[in-house]
Amino acid sequence: MLFLKRLKEAALAVLPITILVLILNFSIKPMDSLNTVSFVIGAILLIVGMGLYSLGVDTAIQPMGEHIGDKVSGSKKIWFIILCIFIIGFIVTIAEPDLTVLATQVSIDSWTLILVISFGVGLFMIIAVLRMILKISLNIVLIILYVILFIMTIFVDKQLIPLAFDSGGVTTGPITVPFIMTLGVGLGATLGGGKSQENSFGVVGICSIGPIIAVVALCLINRTESSATVTELTAFSSFGDVLLAYLKALPKYLKEVGIALAPICGFFFLLQFLLIKLPKKRLLSICIGIIYTYIGLTLFLTGVNVGFMPTGTYIGSSVADFNKYLIIPIGMVVGACIVLAEPAIHVLTKQVENVTGGTISKKSLLIVLIISMAIAIGLAMTRVVTGISILYILVPGYAIALILTFFVPKIFTGIAFDSGGVASGPMTATFLLPFAMGACQEIGGNILSDAFGTVALVALTPLVTLQILGLVFKIKSSKLHKAQLQREFAELLTHEGEIIELDTEV
Fold first, then answer.
1. Residue 211's closest CA among 139, 88, 114, 144?
2. What are phi and psi of 311, to 5 degrees?
3. CA distance to 199, 202, 356, per residue, from 183 (Å)
4. CA atoms within 13 A on the CB side of 491
5. Spatial distance between the Cα atoms of 445 and 498, rounded to a whole number of angstroms
6. Please, are residues 91 and 175 in contact by the beta-carbon 8 Å criterion?
7. What's the CA gap between 86 and 62, in Å, rounded?
C-alpha cells in the first residue's frame, strides 16, 4: 500500500530529530514528564501527517500545478499569463502555515505582514515568468534583484533586517513549494524553448526575494518599533491536559490549512471548468489527494506547533544555560537532522531527480542539503552567542553565491536558489527558530536582531553548497569528456597505416 510506504519514509525522516531531542532533554535539563509526552505525541502526528501529506502532494498538488502551468503558459495572451501568475502567487502565500507562524512571533500586525509578503510573492512570480518569456539568464535577474535589496537595507532599522530575510524563507513552505515548483516545471517546458530543463528551476528562488523586498519596504514606510514573542512550555497538570491542548489546537489548524488550500483548489476548479477539462476519473483522484493533503498537513502543523515549538525554546534555553558555546555544535547536529523532517525537501529532491533524469540523484542532493543546514545553524548560533550583525554573513554569502552563477551549469543555479527557500520550511520556523530564541533569551541577547535570521541563513547556505556541487559536477563531466576523446583518438591511431579498399564496381 502506497500510504504505508509514505508512512515508513516519514518515520525515517522524523525519528532522527525526535531521538536527538529526547537525548538532549534527558542529558542536560529534563522537561517535566507531561511536556515530554506532549513532544512525543507531536512527533507521532508529524509522522502520520507527513505520510498523508506526501501522498496528497503526489496525487493532487503536483498534478494541479502541472495542469495549470500547461494551460496558462499555453495562452498566447501575455496579460492573461501575468494575471494568472500573480493570482497564483498571492493566493498560495496568503495563508501559508509557515508565514502565519512567523507573523505571530513578532509585534507587527499579522495580517499586514501576511498581505505585504503575499503581494511580494505574486509580484516576483511575474518577474520569474517574464524572465522565461524574454529569455533572460537567471543569474542576471538574481544579481539585479539582490543588488536592489541590499541597497534598500542600508536605510532600514538594522534589527528588522533578520525578520525581513526570514520572511523570504517561510513563504516557501509545504503548500507553496510543490505547487510553485511543479508550475515552474510546466512553464519552463512551454516557455523555455531549448532551455526548458534550466528554466524548470529558479521560480521559487526568485519568489523568495519578493517577500524580503516587500518587508524591507514595509519597514521603510512603517517605522514603529517591533518586538518578538517567545513560546514557553505549557504548565500541564495531567495527561488529560496534554490531550486537551492538541484537541483545542486541531480546529485552529483545520481552519488554517483549509484557508490555505481553498484558494488554490478554487482557482484550479475554475480553470478546470473553463480550460483544463480533465476526465471525471482523473478529477476524482485529485479530489481524494486534496483530502489527503488537508488531513496530513493539519496533523503535521498541530504536532509541530503544540509539541515541537515550545520544546525547541526549552532545549535552546537549557543548552545555553549549561554552556552558551555548546549551542553551536548541538545546533549544527539538530539542524542536520531537521532537514530529513522538512516535507518540502523530499518534494524538491524527487522533482530534481525526475527533471534531470537521475543525473542529480536524490541521495546526493539530500547529503548536500544536510551539510548546508548544519553550516547554517552553526552560523545562526554563532550570531546568538556573539551578537554579530547578520549582514556580515549575508552580504559575503550572497556575493559568493552570485559569483558562482557564472561558473556552474545553469540548471544548478536554479536548483540551488530553489533549495534555499525549500530548506527553510515549517520545521525550521517552529523548532530551529524557537531553539535560537530560547538560547538568545537565556544569554540575554536581542531576540529580534540576534535570534531572527535563523531561517534566512538556512535559505542562504544551499545557494553556495549546491553550486559548489554543480562546479564539481562540471569539472568531472569535463574530465570524462576529455578522457572519452582521448580513447577515441587512441583507437583511431591503432588503425593508422591500414589500407582501406574502396569498392569501385558500379
1. 114
2. -65, -40
3. 11, 11, 17
4. 6
5. 81
6. no
7. 19
β-bridge partners, 228? 106
Q: How far is CA 218 from CA 155, 157, 386, in A?
A: 12, 11, 28
What digits encode the pLDDT tens for the residues 107-165? 666 778 888 888 998 899 889 888 887 888 888 999 999 999 999 988 888 888 888 88
223: DSSP letter? -
Helix 391-404 vs helix 410-423: crossing angle, to nearest 10 = 150
User: Is residue 210 a contact partner of residue 121, using CB atoms and an 8 Å limit?
Assistant: yes
Closest CA to 14 of 2, 24, 22, 25: 22
Q: Determine contact, residues 425/462, Cβ cutoff 8 Å.
A: no
Task: Round to whole Å and give the CA distance between 246 and 49.
Answer: 14
User: Which of the 8 DSSP states describes residue 358?
Assistant: T
From the list 177, 189, 63, the residue with the least C-alpha distance to 419 is 177
User: Is the torsion defined by CA of 143, 193, 127, 365 positive or negative?
Assistant: negative
| pLDDT on residue 502 | 52
Question: Nearest CA to 116 among 208, 211, 205, 203?
Answer: 211
Q: Is the model's pLDDT at 480 over the cut of 90?
A: no
Task: Tally Cβ neighbours within 10 Å of residue 25.
Answer: 18
Share of the chain above pLDDT 70, in %: 84
For residue 222, the SS3 value is coil
Q: Which amino acid is at 503?
A: D
Distances (CA, A) of 103 to 97, 110, 437: 10, 5, 15
The set of cell numbers assigned to 375 is 553550516
- Pull the grid cell for residue 494: 591503432
pLDDT at 196 over 80: no
Q: Which three cell numbers stand for residue 177?
A: 513549494
Spatial CA neighbour of 53 closest among 102, 7, 91, 101:
7
- Closest-CA residue to 335 (of 462, 422, 172, 458): 458
Are 228 and 27 contacting, i.e. CB atoms less than 8 angstroms apart? Answer: no
